[in-house]
Write a structure and sequence with these properties.
The chain is mostly beta strands. The mean pLDDT is 91.
Length: 206
Amino acid sequence: MTALRQVIVTKSVSSPGTSACGLAWDGKTFWYYDLSVHTLFQVSTSGEVIQKIHIETACCDTAFDGQYIWQASPLTLQIFIINPENGRVVRTLKTQDKCSGLCCSGPGFVRGSWTRKELIYFDPENGDEIRSIKTGASTSGIAFDGSSFWHGGEIDGENYIFKVNPKTEEVEKFPLEFTISGLTFDGKSLWAADGTNNKFVKLEIA
């Protein structure tokens, strides 16, 4: 891994809930799951609630594939694919272990794991694993910025955000003062769900 650099928060938006787990961008608005009320929220860039979708099962990460919302449920080893227009589950996928972190907008569908320190490429039709990239930490939130994957994680109790080159598998890490509980890319910038301060924050790597 290369030398550490600094992460700067350039904007923050208060979360409407109390326990954000996952963050996705649909091109205009954010989606995130709140663990305290088992609810998927659609919110504006100012934090205004637009829509709520209740999900019975505890979930942990959120992604958007251009049409549907993907929601990981590590306790049931499932991923729910949800129609955002009516809140219905279109279908489900089984995972081989507890999924933590989910991204549907990069070169392939990628998820993380509670126990394995890897990014795992998987088949979006059946959930089968295709290949993996070792990153050195378990994942919390995954985003793709057009060239690299990013994910949150901890090493020896310290918080970091990791940058992963999908071609070379090179990994960089940057220290954080908060825990990432979700991560997304809005086409220009990375946004994270700040699990420590219950905010959505816009990030810049200096």
